[in-house]
Amino acid sequence: MSKQYQFKLVLLGESAVGKSSLVLRFVKDQFDDYRESTIGAAFLTQTVNLDDGSTVKFEIWDTAGQERYKSLAPMYYRNANCAVVVYDITQPSSLEKARTWIRELQRQADPSIVITLCGNKSDLAARRQVTQEEAQKYAEEEGLMWGETSAKTGEGVADIFTTLAKKLPQTAPPPSSRGARGTRGGAPASGGRAGVDLNKSGNVIGTGPDGCNC
Amino acid sequence: MSADTEIRSLLRPSERVIASLRASASASDDKSRSNQNVNEVALAVIAHVDSGDRHDGLERGSVIVLDSVSLNPQSVTPKKLRIISATPITSELTISIAQGMTQGLFVLTLQVTTSSESRSRSAHETTRTFTTSDSHALSEFTSACRRFQSQAPNEDSFAWLASYAAMTTATSAYDVPPTVEPQSRHPQTHRTLPIAVPVNSLPLHECLSSAAAGQPGDEDKDIAMIKEDWVRRTLDVECAGDKTTIRIRIGSFNVNGKYPSQDLHPWLRKPSSPQLPNAMSGGKETASVYTAKIGDAIQGEPDLFVLGFQELDLAPESLLYSTSAAAARVDAWTAAIFAGLGELRDEYQKIAIHQLVGMLIIILAKKSIIPRISQIRTASLGTGLMGIMGNKGAVGLRLVVSSTSLTFVNSHLAAADEMLARRNSDFHDLERRLVFPGELREDSESHDGMGYERSSIGGDYDYDADMVASGDLNYRIDLPDADVRALLSSPNLHLRELGVRDMVLHDQLKNVIKEGQSFKGFLEGDITHLPTYRFATGLSTDALGYDMKWVLSRHTSFGSSLSRSVIRRRPAWTDRVLWMSRHPSQVNILAYAAHSEITMSDHRPLAATFEVKINDVDKLKQAEMAATLFEKIGNIEDAEATHKLKLASSTIDLGAVSFRRPVMKQMELQNIGKIASTFRFVPMRPRGPIHAPWLSITPLAGLILPGETMSIIITAFIDERTAAPLNMNPNRLDETLILHTARGKDHFVSVTGQYQPTCFANSLSWLVRLHEPIRSTKREVESHSKQLLNAPKEIMRLVNWLMSHATNIPGLFITRADEGLVDNIRDALDTGNEISAEEKLSDPHVAIAVGETLLRFLDSLTTPVVPASIHARCMEATSRDEAFEILDQFPEESVNVWISITAFLHFVLQQDAHASKNVNEDTDQSTRANIIAAVFAPILLRDDAAKAPRVSPLAKRKFLLYFIT
Ligand SMILES: Nc1nc2c(ncn2[C@@H]2O[C@H](COP(=O)(O)OP(=O)(O)OP(=O)(O)O)[C@@H](O)[C@H]2O)c(=O)[nH]1
Ligand SMILES: [Mg+2]
């Protein structure tokens, strides 16, 4: 059985915590010491192959962390299947900000949204200000997934997204719509998907080349 | 054997021949038939009576087309007829007849439009054109068709045709009609160009899919459109041809079934005509004030006359038969047109004519321009009885001058006051179904929709396309009959102009265009002429000649308990000329007027003169270049490609932004990716606004080649409409724009600025709190002070100034002011500076500008001096005393404003009365007062734009007159 899933993912968190760096590492396996702050929302896609042969394609919106664009964030997390809320382990204030985002998501986003709390810049352990215990405890209380990453070294990045990719097909109900970004854009890339009935079963957007769905 | 007999021999006994016709199938561009370009055919209308259980006594009709084959080419025996197509006569079949270029030759067009349910199939329109010289047989043929059509049969009544469809040969040039065998239809072999220039001339961003932040919409479609638009724009620049200007005179005349009995010269040649019959226009009228008489400046003769007639023939049989009487009428009007041209008649030639029942369109061209004209095409559509009959509908002509396509549509839409919705739907019908047969297109299957998409990718580059929609559109004026007549009846020119201006605000067509309900995107010249309908002769007319008879309305008027009510046909601008262009700046209207000298119909003829820029482009070169450009763009659609656009800056500081003073900023957008990318600005929320109403962005969507940079212009302009919300919360302008890269990032752009508040567009209740000029820094403190002013100091300053310097200025409140002066005076009010320099105090231009500033100030108030909620009460006053009593009900801040303004006006009129004895004998005092009332009443008692029941403009004037006379 080789199913293909597609999920909309949104990254939220204070400016400079490393959201864009995290995505760059995940999508292109690169890191950039001097990244410009995101003024807007960047769109990227990445596909994760799971052990059972199924694939999960993430449609990622990397949002602007700067306070003045906060009012635009809801436009990007609405219809999202999952959110990665990022804080910087060297900045306690960024965890506070992450909590605010999580509260907002719990109130305003799709109730089925899967949230991962992500402590970034784990390579800067020497300057750590947020303990793992504190963050993990908070995540457990709120029923979130949690992990630490370093976009710089790549440590933990794949884990965060793979764990999400495994969890989503089990928890996420069929999206009410095909997601804000139409699936058309990505469809041709993966060949055999054309013509598959997207409405058939939840997020399963296609089957393997054998064309058998059962 | 006669044709009929031979045809009959091919039919089953259950069918009979109603009419038949010998014709030539027009030289077609159908490649499959290139070996025999002109094909002699026979057409027949055959009827079938269903003898089965479902017999309903109705005959069904079908048009069959037969060609003649000869088995042995050497044989001298007559060729044998063979059925090559059978088409059921339903509403999907459009039959039109046009006079051919050669005298005595007629062009018959049969067009099948498959209904929308079956649109998913590739082919949906088939057009066949035949020519014949047998006018008698042709009229029998068409009237037979129309008769069957009028029975509006449904499609399932045509099973009997199947056997004939089967007889049609596989090599047939024609399609088997879809109702018979839908699956077996050949792809269509004829392309039709949509008439839908309207859709095409919408700005690009309005054609794009609905998108918002985080919701890109249909990117494939958007990319394709932006690409296409870019190619067209680039061609415009890189492949621009010689531009020349031609002059076109458009006429529309509902002749009410009359034969020409008067000289048409004024309609054809005069820029404008006196507004009133001679008897009434005796007085020395001063020059028009609100509208310059643009027409008088006109020199030069039109290169094209495009004349549209309606109700050419009112005889009921004209609906069904193409009678010889109808032909005689066409001849008579054609002759009258040439006669009306006077000494110019030999310079023109009739180049195209097209008729559907009473609707006729004729184009005359100056001989010198004829060599530049090509591709004349015709279209017609009946929307009348049963939705198909030609008593209403349109006839159109499309032609190409050099390389610019010009389309002229003469329409006659549903009549009667209460049929507004029907007129709108008639228009949409025309927009959808009136099509001109076009050339064969290679890509005939790929375009299904109308408009933008249809003429889109891979099509020709008829980017230069203008369209004129004229005719008896039948839209009325939403004002009571008595008001319309009274507004029109003044013998004074100013007053009539003001009346026309008031009436235009209530014109149904202007309002439906504004609201996008029909004729969306069309433009019209300023209406300064009197209504063109409905005139009568004899006793039952008013002083202007408008019909006064009472007639039964066709429908219940709302609020009436009677099933039918008695109404009078109010004068109305039923006859109109509208236009639309892909390049609006290339069409310029020079004159727009009705010609009251021509009194033979119940309508007056209307004419508009245009100057149109014509392009002369080498189409072949253009097509090659287009192909190169598409290649240059490359495959943007490729899903794997990464699109990278970089904004030079994500913030734009507008600096200080003042009322009515535009601020322009540029923003650089660079393509730093490897392939071409498209972008568009999107709203924050779906269907929301892309930007604040006081901002504009050009372009709102576009394409950038790799490595190139585009400048996007951001303009801030705050006017009366947009200032009010800013005045409420002034100081900082702060906007976030969202620029979306197709398949990529959303960029945010912060636009900030410092708003300089103005006293315009505020409420009286706020202004009376401000003791200091609005831009004074002390303002914050003041807004809390308890002591209110009696009236806004701005009004008092203006009125006091006028009182001391402008009590005897001719043209005050009437003559148009100098814009620069008005701006300065407004600034003076905002800052507290002097209204005018000492040495200018006696300059009448300054006085006129101060007067205009007062009017504009009052008009800009967020709530009018007299709020709409008490208008009705004001209208109840029947005497001066009652009027003054109503003042008690005015809001506190309004009372003093009202009193000081009316007192001033009263004073001015007194002065005038005194002065007029020697200066201005022509205008008596009551006329002066009426003019002032007509100017001030709509402003002081402004309607609530959002609410329906508007108070009569006349009653408002009357109320104001109690105070100023
Ligand atoms: N040492 C270290 N630096 C990192 C890491 N991730 C990001 N950075 C740096 O942190 C800075 C900010 O990273 P971005 O990815 O731009 O942060 P962002 O969350 O996208 O910020 P906004 O776009 O403003 O919301 C950059 O200078 C990165 O190089 C990391 O894991 N370790
Ligand atoms: Mg970022």
TrEMBL record, chain A:
Q: Which GO terms describe its biological process?
A: protein transport; vesicle organization; vesicle-mediated transport
- Its domain of life reads Eukaryota
GO cellular component entries: endosome; plasma membrane
Membrane disposition: Lipid-anchor
Which keywords are on file for this protein?
Cell membrane, GTP-binding, Lipoprotein, Membrane, Nucleotide-binding, Prenylation, Protein transport, Transport
Q: Where found? A: Cell membrane
Region (Disordered) residue spans: 166-202
MF (Gene Ontology): GTP binding; GTPase activity
For whether the record's keyword set contains Transport, the answer is yes
Pfam families assigned to the protein according to its UniProt record, in alphabetical order: Ras
| Sequence ranges of Gly residues compositional bias | 182-194
According to its UniProt record, where is this protein mainly located?
A: membrane
CDD domains xrefs: Rab5_related
Q: What is this protein called?
A: Ras-domain-containing protein
UniProtKB/TrEMBL annotation, chain B:
Which Gene Ontology MF annotations are present? Answer: phosphatidylinositol-4,5-bisphosphate 5-phosphatase activity
Q: Which SMART domains match?
A: IPPc (SM00128), RhoGAP (SM00324)
Identify the Gene3D superfamilies for this entry.
Answer: Endonuclease/exonuclease/phosphatase, Immunoglobulins, Rho GTPase activation protein
Question: Record's superkingdom?
Answer: Eukaryota
InterPro entries named in the record: Endo/exonu/phosph_ase_sf, Ig-like_fold, IP5, IPPc, OCRL-1_2_ASH, Rho_GTPase_activation_prot, RhoGAP_dom
One GO cellular component assignment for this chain's record is: early endosome membrane
Instruction: Name the major location.
Output: membrane
What are the subcellular locations of this protein? Cytoplasmic vesicle, Phagosome membrane; Early endosome membrane
Residue ranges annotated for the Rho-GAP domain, each copy included: 779-965
> What Pfam families does the annotation carry?
Exo_endo_phos2, OCRL-like_ASH, RhoGAP
Query: Which keywords fit this entry according to its UniProt record?
Result: Cytoplasmic vesicle, Endosome
Asked if the Swiss-Prot or TrEMBL record annotates the protein with the keyword Isomerase, the reply is: no
A biological process term (GO) from this entry: phosphatidylinositol dephosphorylation
- PANTHER family membership: INOSITOL 5-PHOSPHATASE, TYPE II INOSITOL 1,4,5-TRISPHOSPHATE 5-PHOSPHATASE
**Name of the molecule in the record:** DNase I-like protein
Q: What species does this protein belong to?
A: Rickenella mellea
Upper classification of the organism: Eukaryota, Fungi, Dikarya, Basidiomycota, Agaricomycotina
